Amino acid sequence: MGAHDLASRRKYNIMTLISWPFRNAAAASRRHLRSGVIAFALMALGPGAAWADDLQDANALLKKGQHAQALDKVNQYLSSRPRDAQGRFLKGLILTEQNKTGEAIDVFTKLTQDYPELPEPYNNLAVLYAAQGQYEKARQSLEMSIRTHPSYATAYENLGDVYTKLASQAYDKALQLDSSNSAAQTKLSLVRDLITGGTGNVRPTKPAPAKPEPQKPVAMAAAPKSAEPAATAPAAPAKAAGPKPTAAPEAKPAAKPAAPGTDEVVGTVRAWAKAWAAKDVKGYLAYYARDFKTPGGESRAEWEKNRAQRINAPKEIEVNIDSPRVSISGDTATVNYRQTYRSDKLKVASNKTLVLARSGGKWLIQQERSGS
Amino acid sequence: MARTPLPLSGILAAVAAAVFVTPAFLPAAEAARRPAQHPVQHPVQHPAQHKARAETPAPAAEPQSAEVMLNAALEDIGKGRFDPALQRIDALLKSYPNFRLGYLIKGDLLLARARPLSELGSAPKAPADRLDDLRAEALARLRAYREPPTKGMLPRYLLEMPPEQQYAVVVDTVRSRLYLYGNDKGQPHLVADYYISVGKNGSQKTREKTPIGVYHVTSSLPANKLPDLYGSGAFPINYPNDLDKRMGREGHGIWLHGTPSNTFSRPPRASDGCVVLSNSDLNIVAKHLQIGLTPVIISEGVEWVTTESWSAERKKFLDQFEQWRADWESRDTDRYLANYSRKFAAGGQDYDAFSRQKRQVNAGKEWIKLKLANVSAFRNPGREDMMVVTFEQDYRSNNLSNQMKKRQYWAREGNRWRIIYEGAA
Questions:
Q1: Can you give the residue ranges of every domain in chain A?
Q2: How many CB atoms lie within 10 A of CB B4?
Q3: At B248, is the pLDDT very low, low, confident or very high (cuts 50, 70, 90)?
Q4: B291 interfaces chain A, CB cutoff of 8 Å
Q5: Is the minimum CB–CB distance between B348 and chain A shorter than 8 Å?
Q6: CA B67, CA B382: separation in Å to the nearest integer?
Q7: What is the mean pLDDT of residues B114-120?
Q8: CB distance from A219 to chain B under 8 Å?
């Protein structure tokens, strides 16, 4: 993995399948191994150590082409952590290698539902759709991928390919050309790609810039789905209404005079982010209202457990809240902002929305949404 | 690392390039901002037509016309609004799935997201002839949209229509356009206009060309009795007419007809001489065609005139036509024959034979009463000044009465019109 694979992966110009979690997982595993035999001995004791091993084994088996065994391992891993993103992502990759496209699509689709802030599952979903010749679906997935992660180079490259493919289909219809041959070629290339390409990591090495670049909204304007007319005016990114104020400079205050309570709400959001970054799980969870709507509809306990795991897993977490925009109506506040999350395992920049409710003089989070 | 967004200049340039081919056109973006304005010749857009083109919501049952949808998309492109443009094109292709030009523009809109485009129809490795055909169609449709007929301007041809002639068809083979005119108490008014394809070799019928002249619809052939090539129906016209025969023009079987099922429209120059409409357009036009009655005037570029100049030409001609009637009633053979050209030829007679016969006949007349009804007068398109007049003639005299439908061709000689042909219509 790493630079070599990255370079070789770049050569494939059809579509690039991403194996994102594994650079991070592998790096973590290497650290794990380096930490020595003691760790190895401890692994036998609890599931906490064993699952990391399962994931690593599954990954190694996949690289060796032992797909069935890799799938067993990853299923084993997932049996104790059914919602784990990395495990499910790996499972999606294994299924892809096994040509179980339908199942792989299923895995990646559910990942996008549970982790809409992650661009990679969208990307891979697009690759699978494209392999099936479903370029319109591929385009939608890639546009989602870019929306969650506007500087995502791989998704842009793939999207460029999908646009080109869609364009060529349209041209074929315009010019009465038989497009069946080229469609078949695309599929074949993808299969070869998967077999020979290994699972290199092509995630952009640079993290998403904390400050949005001025071009970003334009780049997005080329891609967004039709449902958002405000975002489609390429020349006027500042106009972007709705929860996509990414172009608004951080320093610039909200256009409207701040409603009373705005400072309070922003203060709460920042304090929540601080607790998160400090890995203060208890403090972090205390910012959520009793009637908080869990993103996947899971039980509060399950969600809390999951969050605790996610927060505890990395050594370090950094959470930045940029360009918050608050609207308050009665005892309900909606905050749109740009969140940059960095840990030793993951870097994600995304647009987020928090809905808070005032209760007993405190603002508590009722809803948490990613994407725009 | 992020892909640079490129489409803006690309597709804009593409459409602008197409639009710029004719210098009179405004730059696409500018024109799109003020669509009602018009370059040099046509300062004001026809309000009725403007309504029909853009504002009238289509009835729920029928989708908007393909051209209305296409133009809306092109307007979006001109304004740099590519996503709405693509949505419009997608909607267009949903309603008209065989609209090849729509796919070409869709391809451009998509490809523009991946790389810059330099022209309309950027399909790589496309067969040049097919691409050229689609570009020509795009240009013809764009021109029609950007240069609609101006209010107050009329085709010179529609001089006189009787009330029973409710509509007239005027074809422009250069602009690939068919104009449907209604007869508003003798005054033509534009109802709608449509993209058409004409003969592979343009107009002036000799071979695979569309004839120029004044014709009328002679019959209606339903789609179920026709090969697929003719689409949703066909309306033969009376080519070759008497004038064509006089000129020795060859060929036959010039029809207005529809489009085969595998395509929505055909390139501007595609037919064997017929005037071809999309099936949806033909079906609309068909509702207005009266068999044996509706004139089809085919021009190589419509001559547009002001209402004043139209009125003046109309009056001058109809006065002479009335003079001919009065001169006949007068039984003054010299006055009567002054209405006929020395080049007159009809029914096997030249001018001399004709004048001899008339003198002989007139000698036996004590009185003549001539009533003319349902007069139509159309100026023949083209360089020669020629009128085609059709009417019902009720002739009564002391020794003979006769009723007939008659057609005359009048040619300008110096400052007046003279008859060069007449016969039963």
A1: 3-197, 262-370
A2: 11
A3: confident
A4: no
A5: no
A6: 29
A7: 82
A8: yes
